[in-house]
Amino acid sequence: MIINRVGIMLYRNLFIALFVTGSLAYTSQASFAQTLNEEQVTVIAPYSPTITKAQKIGDVPTNRVNTNSKFKLEYYTNPQLISTTFELKELQAARYISSKDPKYKQNMIYVGMGLYTSPYAELFLNGKIKKDLTLGVHATHFSSKASVKDFAYSGFSKSGAEIWAKKTGAKKVFWFSGFYQRDLFHYYGFKPNDFLSNFVTAPDFDEESKQLFTDFGGKFNLSSTISKKKSGFIVDGGYRYFTDLYKNNENVINLDATYTRPIDFLGYKNQYGGIRLLSEVAISHWADYTQLQNVNLINITAPILTQNFFHGKVDFQLYYNLLFDRFDLKVGGVVSAGLDSTSTFRVYPDMNLKADLIKNVLDLFLQFDGGLVSPTYYSLSRENPYISAFLPLNYSSINYRFKGGFNINIVGRADIQLYGSFEQIDNDLFFTTDTVGFYRNQLNLIYDDAEVVKIGGDISVTVS
């Protein structure tokens, strides 16, 4: 009994010890677990990412929490023909009109009457014969029967016609014309009653004071198409035969040729160099006086000495032209030579500047040049028809001329131009009364040195 009690005591103590040990182990394990959950551990180490570790982000991110989804609908169609009263009308094909070249006709007729005694008419006709060929006609007439009391008859008539043709090519343009001009007028600057005592029989003063200028000939122009990158040329020329009622006549030939070539200097664009040759040749034939000299006059005789006079000039010009922004500068010189026996030779400047100082508002132009002037019977008659024959046709030299001015535009409504010039001229020509003529109703020429100052202005207003 003692052994058994001792054994029981051993088993009981062993069980208690095991129970206590197990409880302590469980308590210790639970406490350790709680400690690990509350600690934060930071590990520092080098990080070398690779492509395989990169995460791809969608192009269009979406909210995965609140996504909307469409309801799936099941449906079907059952097409059927429906009867209707609507009927389609038969369509007509649209007409096709081929494109045509635009018409370049500008046919006009002007007719008028001035002061009941001055009829006027003018005609313009032109049109294309072929795609590259254009023809035109221009005719004009203006006359008057007006008179001045107590003076000789002053009626006049001016008639003319011109026919021209223009051919346009890919690289060149050629223009040619033939013209005819007839100007009839009277030297009316005298009083017939003041001369009746000088005649045995009174003449027909209207017939005696008559003068008729006839001018006909041809002109041409040949030019290359305009290009800023290629050289170009322009050639103008013409011939005219000019005569009057008293068989005084003149043959005039003129030629004007210009060659322009783009150049590259200091890297600037729009630079050009050019050469110009200008020639004017005239042969004047004086045959008879244009004033009454020896018909039915008392004790008055005047010999007639016919004359032939060859004259003209040649100009040779070199120039440089620069277009820069709103500036246009031209610098050059001209060498002129006379063609008669006087052997006239001169050198002149040729410079001008155009500047758009304020765009579309204020323009400036300056000019410094000169030139040799060779008058002809034709050119003088255009300036003043009341000239006599046997004129002294001498050279005039514009040694230098300064000219400048402004052009002002005001809000697109008004244009104001102010200008002035100063010229120094050797042997300038002036019209003076021809005292040799019996009626003293015509003008002759005298020459003298002169300095000419001109100041002027123009204004134009647009009203809409």
Provide tags for this entry.
mainly beta, disordered N terminus, 16 strands, 16-stranded antiparallel sheet, single chain, 464 residues
Tally of DSSP helical segments: 3
Overall geometry? elongated
Percent in strands = over 45%
Strands, total number? 16
How are the strands of the biggest sheet laid out side by side?
1-2-3-4-5-6-7-8-9-10-11-12-13-14-15-16
The termini sit apart by: 149 Å
**Helix content, binned percent:** 10-25%
Mean pLDDT, all residues = 83
Helix-and-strand structural type:
mainly beta
Largest sheet: 16 strands, antiparallel
Q: What are the secondary-structure elements, in order, as H or E?
A: HEEEEEHEEEEEEEEHEEE
Uncertain segments are 1-6, 25-37
Radius of gyration: 52 Å
What do these coordinates show?
The chain is mainly β. Helices cover 10% and strands 50% of the residues. The protein is built from three helices and 16 strands. It has a 16-stranded antiparallel β-sheet with strand order 1-2-3-4-5-6-7-8-9-10-11-12-13-14-15-16. The termini are far apart. Residues 1-6 and 25-37 have low confidence and may be disordered.
